[in-house]
Write a structure and sequence with these properties.
With 341 residues, the protein is of the alpha+beta class. Among the domains are: 160 residues, Nucleotidyltransferase, domain 5, CATH 3.30.420; 67 residues, Nucleotidyltransferase, domain 5. It contains 11 helices and 19 strands. The strands form 5 sheets. It has a 6-stranded mixed beta sheet, with helices on both faces. It has a 5-stranded mixed beta sheet with strand order 13-12-11-17-18, with helices on both faces. It has a 3-stranded antiparallel beta sheet with strand order 5-4-6. A hairpin with a 4-residue loop joins strand 2 and strand 3. Helix 5 packs antiparallel against helix 7. The longest helix is centred in the first third of the chain and has 17 residues.
């Protein structure tokens, strides 16, 4: 690494994004871009847009999350503008200085399309000198040095990504991805509550907060009673069953994907891989998820499922570690999704 290289590890998430840098920066922010609804909003905000945590919680702003299901939206100029602003904001968090060659490895969902990778790099070109996109679960494995005979399950807001690590760069058949993840749980949870309590005033953001605090699968350790609003008045409701039902809904696809990935290992390595299953991403915090996965796979033998210690930063730190150990001038060896200055 030259003295002028600033290395960044960026995990762009549907809900939250993380950035770490070779200068010790470590930051987490909401993946949101907001615009004032009218001239009054411009006056109140003092700007034409805002990115990150400040974009939320203000009624005079129209909020956009540029990442849908873990990848950039491709629906129009406004969405691309929001994505451009989000990427630029992420790069700014790394605190680049004049004269830096800013180099970033960016995590993307497993099996993200070539079209979406190309779109991401095209937008990143405006803020970065060198960039590479890499599978998010692979970056988690790289951070943990679990590159042989392991399976990483990265549960984000937009996607659940799985990657089988075999001591090489993951191939298409080594990865799986589906959209039954955090956002899916939130929507299902909200629908279930409305079915039982039709008069409640409820938002997806409130459901997300409840999930992040109490989310569980399997037997409930305690009743989940929360204060919500009905016709403006506070009411205490029991949402235990609805929450457990919504959280458990992502499990069947995870089990099916693991079963498919295990077959791809050499038979002599399958036992080791099943004893080295790693849960990552915000969804890994769901209580009981590790045990439920292990129980569902019990026919395969001794199953061991562990969580990463640092849910928020594991992917970004894996990206920075990879960037530090492989100089940017050699990033082209890792694939075609390369941008160079």
């Amino acid at each position: 690494m030259s003295e002028k290289d600033l290395l960044l590890g960026i995990d762009l998430g549907t809900s939250r994004s993380a950035v770490v840098s070779s200068r010790g920066v470590r930051t987490l922010f909401d993946s949101a871009v907001a615009y004032p609804k009218d001239l009054i909003g411009v006056k109140l905000l003092g700007s034409t847009h805002v990115v990150g945590d400040e974009a939320l919680g203000k009624s005079f702003l129209e909020v956009d999350f540029p990442l849908k299901d873990g990848v950039l939206k491709e629906t129009g100029d406004m969405q691309r503008d929001a994505a451009r602003k989000l990427i630029a904001y992420a790069v700014e968090q790394g605190q680049p200085q004049e004269g830096d060659r800013v180099c970033a490895i960016i995590g993307v969902p497993a099996n993200a399309s070539k079209v979406n990778k190309a779109l991401l790099l095209a937008l990143a070109k405006e803020s970065l000198d060198v960039a590479l996109v890499v599978s998010e679960p692979f970056l988690v494995a790289y951070k943990l040095d679990k590159l042989v005979n392991s399976i990483v399950i990265d549960i984000g807001a937009g996607t659940t990504d799985l990657c089988a690590l075999k001591g090489r760069l993951p191939q298409t058949d080594d990865q799986a991805s589906n959209t039954k993840a955090g956002d899916y749980i939130d929507q299902l949870f909200m629908s279930a509550i409305h079915l039982r309590y039709p008069g409640l005033q409820l938002t997806k953001a409130v459901c997300k907060q409840i999930k992040e605090r109490y989310g569980y699968v399997g037997p409930a350790a305690e009743r989940v009673e929360v204060t919500l609003r009905e016709e403006g008045r506070p009411v205490v409701v029991d949402v235990t069953e609805e929450l457990g039902y919504a959280c458990q809904a992502i499990v069947p696809e995870i089990i099916e994907a693991i079963e498919q990935l295990v077959v791809g290992f050499d038979p002599a390595d399958q036992e080791a891989a099943l004893q080295n299953i790693i849960l990552a991403g915000g969804g890994s915090a769901i209580r009981g998820l590790d045990q439920m996965i292990a129980n569902a796979l019990s026919d395969y033998g001794d199953i061991r499922v562990n969580r990463v210690e640092d849910i928020a930063y594991a992917g970004a730190e894996g990206a920075l570690k990879l960037a530090s150990e492989l100089p940017p001038d050699y990033w082209g060896q890792l694939g075609e999704s390369m941008l160079g200055s």
